[in-house]
Amino acid sequence: MSATKPSDSFVTSCIENHIQVIAYNRNWNIPTTCSVACDHKGGGEQVAQYFYDKGHHNIGIIKGPDDSFVSQQRCKGFINHLKTLGINKISTAKGSFTYEGGREASKTLLRNKKLSALFCADDTMAFGCLDYIKNNTKLKIPGQLEIIGYDDKSVAEWISYNLTTIRQPIRQMAKLTTQLILDYIKDPEFEPVDHLVQGKFIKRKTTR
Question: Which of 17, 90, 101, 190 can bridge 96 by disulfide, Cβ–Cβ 3.0-4.6 Å?
Fold first, then answer.
């Protein structure tokens, strides 16, 4: 089982030696391997639809690292879905999946005084964003700016943040992964499968 994509030679070697490889929280699109992943793209689409349904048109996003698979998928789902809804102008900044990155990205995005909704592709960046707003601006959350994160880290439910977010279905993914391992032990020739699990929208106090 791996959460990062191994080399093609490694995967080939495993297959030749009858060792099943399971991609965890991503899909490598390799027909001979199994995968269990959160639907990160779908999670981004959920956030986009929520903002649209709330009537927002001045929307921003704080992205993660360029080389992050989950950031790519979450941002792709969010941006592309907004475009299908007719919203093509989206303010963007990078936060590198860090607290300080979220703070710095907020400074950039809040130059747009009309910004009314913000998606942070990771909760940690959202925490930095919220603290920056609280300590350096007079913006009211969620009255003037709605913010949504991603992951539902334990800190997200603290009263100081009360962050609306997309929860990754970690337990369900773990159960599916365990079942794949047991299936392989029972039948090494079983057909590889891909499981894509929908994240859950968790509404708290950073949205109306």
Answer: 101
* Domains detected in the chain: 8-38+169-199 (no CATH), 40-167 (3.40.50.2300)
Q: Which amino acid is at 156?
A: A
Structure tokens at 167: 């929860």
Name the H helices within 17-146.
Answer: 40-53, 69-84, 99-109, 123-136
- DSSP letters, 92-125, are EEE-TTSHHHHHHHHHHHTTSTT--EEEESSHHH
3-state SS class at 191: coil
Average of per-residue pLDDT across 14-20: 77
> Tell me, what's the pLDDT at 3?
54
> For residue 29, what are the contacts with CB-CB under 8 A and spacing of at least 6?
none
